[in-house]
Amino acid sequence: MVTTAEPTTTARPGRTGGWPAVAVVAFGTFLLVTAEQLPVGLLTRVGTDLSVSAGTAGLMVTVTSIVAGLAAPVVPVLVGRLDRRWLLTGLMGLMTLANVASGLAPGFAVLMVSRALVGVAIGGFWAVAGGLAVRLVPAERVPRATAVIFGGVGAANVFGVPIGTVLGDFAGWRVAFATLSGLALVVLIALLVMLPPLAATEPVRPRLLAGQFRNRGVRLGILATFLIVTGHFAAYTFISPVLQDLSGVRADLVGPLLFGFGVAGVAGNFVAGAAVARRLRTTVLVITAALAVAVLIFPVLGETPAGGVTLLIVWGLTYGGVSVSLQTWMIKAAPRAVEAASALWVSVFNLAIGLGALTGGAIVDALSLTGVLWLAGALFVLAGATVWAVRAADLR
After folding, report:
1. Cα 73 to Cα 348: distance, rounded to the nearest angstrom
2. Distance in angstroms (rounded) separating the CA atoms of residues 17 and 189
3. What pTM does this model have?
């Protein structure tokens, strides 16, 4: 049953954003995801410079993801009726200052505080930006615009993180963070210029957030998101040892193959963006089924380099469609409460990233790399069953 709450946002006549605004928001998501994941490529340098272990340095990613998950539903509640244009620019300003602090951090404690602030910016920005397409372009172009916005996520994995890592290797990790702050400032200015006024007619209140769980479509969509993202990161976190130990891929080829995974993901994002406009539920079913097949047959058909590489690309192509499909799901399930539903979705998405990695690590230590693939496959199957239970009336 679709919620009957009033729309959380209403576009004003006159100045409109259109595709230039969509492009700026997409670049904002690109920058935020790059900032979230960049420390993965800088762990050794940061750890050595600040005299902490690699495991401790890894908290730069974990803490940011957890804070982002907590901030996603909280930020819209705290800002009330604040124009979303000002909210997005303010969060990008926080992103700018946080990365300046990261680049100048005298010790690991200060760095962790700055990374927590990055998490606030990520959670708040994504919660609003994910459902922004409905306010920037005509209704028939919303799926494509949503795909463009989430294209920034895939592009961050393909271009942002590798380029930032190379910059950190050559100029130092502090320069990499400082560069992020400079780019964030550029995006802040672009948001002010390109975005139309986006006043909230009804603030997102805790009651409205809680009410989304009475919406069957939102409830099942969030459950499917939790299962898919947890399963993906449980297995993908260990994709490097899977490729080397299970498929026999040389260590020096893992980097280029992960680049290929990211490119396939960008392509999958736009393929899914086109498909959801016609068959949303079917598209998500195909995605969950393909993910389940890819990881479940990996221990059998992925025992050779050719098999492992083929399944990796299928995996990347398929997972690339997850964000745009499930965000569109939230828009369809809660058309009158897009921001509230999106905030819950973003929260679950980010928390599932951390849970997936932690669970995968426990399985790898207790069982084997094959065990983590079986776990991911089982979660994908459960996600498929969840999607199968959805009725047409749940997605309008």
Report:
1. 10
2. 14
3. 0.77
Domain that holds residue 158: 18-194
How many residues can be counted in the chain? Answer: 396
Closest CA to 137 of 346, 331, 333, 395: 331
Contact in structure between 312 and 177 (CB atoms under 8 Å): no
User: Is residue 157 within 8 Å of 33, Cβ to Cβ?
Assistant: yes
- Shared domain check, 140 and 46: yes
And the tokens for 296?
């479940």
HSE-CB of 83 using CA atoms within 13 angstroms = 11
CA distance 355 to 334: 26
138 with 266, same domain: the answer is: no
Q: What amino acid is encoded at 60 in this protein?
A: M
Residue 295 CB neighbours (<10 A): 28
Question: Which pLDDT tens digit goes with each residue over 290-349?
Answer: 999 999 999 999 889 999 999 999 999 999 889 889 888 888 888 777 777 877 888 888
- The residue-averaged pLDDT of 254-275 equals 84
Same domain, 266 and 390: yes
Domain co-membership, 112 together with 187: yes
Quote the mean pLDDT of the chain: 83
Instruction: Answer whether 92's CB lies under 8 Å from 190's CB.
Output: no
